[in-house]
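sorry for the late reply, my laptop died twice this morning and i had to redo everyting from scratch. anyway the thing you sent over, i finally got around to it. pasting the sequence first so we're on the same page, its 605 residues, then the predicted structure underneath. double check i copied it right bc i was rushing
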Amino acid sequence: MLRATISQTAAICLLFPLTAGASEPLVYTDQGKNWSAMDRAMYYTQDQGSRLMPLSWLKALTLPDGSPFLSQSLSRYGYLPMTGPNQGLPVGFTSTGPAGREQVGVTCAACHTREIRVSGTKYRVDGGPALVDFHRLLVDLDEATQKLANDPAAFDSFAKIVLGPDYEDPSSRDLLKLEFDLWSKRFHAIVSRGVPSEPWGVGRLDAVGMIFNRLTGLDLGETSDRIIEANIQSADAPVRYPFLWNAAVQDRTQWPGFAANGSDILGLARNVGEVYGVFGEFTPVKDSWSLLGIDYLKGNSVNFSGLSTLEGLIKKLGPPAYPFPIDKALAQKGEAVFKAPGPWGSCEDCHGQRPGTPSLGNKTWATPLVDTGTDSHQYDVLSWVAHPGVMTGARIPFLSERLAETSPAIDILTVAVEGSILQHYAPWIFDLRLKQTDAVEVALDKDLSALLPELYLPKDLRELRNAFPRSQGLGLADAQRSAVPPAESTSKVPESANSPTTQFKYESRVLYGIWATAPYLHNGSVPTLSDLLKAVDQRPEKFESGADYDPVMVGLAATQSGLHSITVTTDCTERNSGNSRCGHEFGTDLSAEDKTALLEYLKTL
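ok and here's the structure:
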C-alpha cells in the first residue's frame, strides 16, 4: 500500500537545480593505472540488456512545458552529460539495435558514476554512488507517457514525429498505438503501485524492492500484458547506491550481504538480477522439454557477453585517490586510531582488508555482516512474498523444492536468475531436445524427472548454488544465517553492538575510497563521516543531498547548489522508518583530536 502522505519524521523534498554548472572545469580523479579513458568510455556505454523504451519514442516525448524530455541529457535528474555521438543520452544510458529501431537502456554507470563540486570545480568518480533522482525520472516519464495514452491529439503529434513518412500508413499508426499502449500500461503499473509517494531523494532508491516489483509484477503474468498487479508493493526502503570499486573481490555483496560473491559466475548472478530490475526483458514460459521446467530465455534481453565485459571493467576500476591536500602527519596519527582496539574492537576489525571465503579458488576480501543497530526496513522488503505466475511449480535449482503458489520474492528472483544462467551456459544438460529423448518416455519416467541435473554441471556453474540464499519460506535473516561464510565469525565486533537484536545485519566493506561515497550508512541517513562519529542524537535530523562536497567534514556540504533534496531522518525510536540515522555508534567517545586525525586517515584510503 502506498503511503498517501509524506510523514513528518521521514520526508524527502526535491529541490530543482538553480544552475546547470556546465561551464565548471571537470577533473577525473585518479583511479589507478589500470583504469584508462578507453575503459571509462566502455563503462559508460556498454549494453547489459536493459530495454527501457525505443529511442524514437524517448526523443519524441515532451515535458509539460513542451520542451524535449531528453533536454540537457536528463541533467535535471542529476545524470551526467556524455561527449561523442550518444544520441543525446547521458552517462550510463545505452542505445542498441538496428538504425531506426534502437532501444534505450540503462547500464551500471548511470547509477554508479559520481560528480562532486568543490570551489567551482567538478570531480568525476567512476564507480561512485550516483547523485541522481531516479524517483523523479520514473514519475516524470510516467506522466509524459500517460498524457499520450489518454490524449488522442497529443498521441497523434507524437506519432507524426516517431513514424515520419510512415505516419501516412494507417497500419503503421495502429501498430505504434498498440505497442505504445502496452508499454505505457506496464510502466504505469509499476510506477503507480511500486514507486512510493514519498520520494527516495537524490542518491537513493529502493533497489531490491524495485527489482522484486519489476520481476514479479511485470514479467510473470499469464495474460498478454504479463502484469500481476497484486505482486507490486511500495518500494519504500531506500538505500544509498553502493560504490563499485573492489566489488568483485568481496566475499558477500548487496547491503544485507545475502549474495555470495568473489567469482565470475557469482558476479554474473548479481548482475543478471540487476538487469531484470532495470527494464530487462524477461518473458519465461513453461517448457516440458526442459529439465528446468521453464524456458527462461524466450524473449530474454540479458546481454551475457556485455555483462562479462562490465564485470571485467569493474575489476580494473580502482578507488579514487583523494584529490585535495592531506596532512600526512595527522593521517599517520589517524591510522593508529583506526587500528586501536576499543570496547567493540577496532575500525580495522570490520573495515580492514583481510582474506575472505574463496570462490572457485579466487582470493576474496572478508565482508563481515553485523547488526550495528542501523535502519531495519530493508528486511521488510526482503520478506516480501509474491505469486510466481508462469513460474509456479518451477524447480529451485540445486534443490528438489518448487515455487509454490505464494513464494518468497527472493526465491522467485533466485530461480529466474539461476535458471537463465544455467539454460544459457549449459543447454546440453537441461534441454531434452538436445538429448533426443522421447517425450513420452520423459513424461512416464518419474526417476528422470526427479533427477537433479545440476549435479553434472561444470564446477564453475555448480558455484551458482551459493549465489543467493534459498529461503524455502523462512525469513531472510534465518535463511541468510546458514549461507553466511565462515569469514563472518572472524569479526571481533559483538553481534549485540548497538542493537537489541541480531536480525538486521548489513555488510561491512573495506573502506578504500570511502571519502567519496557520502551520505553514509546503508540507507544514506548520515551526511558526513564527521557526523557518523557523533552520537545519534547529535547527528543531523535533516540535511541536503547533492554534489557540493565538504573536505573538512568529509561528505556532503551543508548547503547545496544545483539539484538536491532534503532528507529528514528519524532516531532510534523509529528504527524501521527507512530513514533512521540510528546505529553504528563507534568512535563517538573519541577526543576531538582523534576524530580529526581519523578523518584525515580515511581520506588516504
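The chain is about 35% helix and 10% strand.
thats about all i looked at so far, will dig more tmrw
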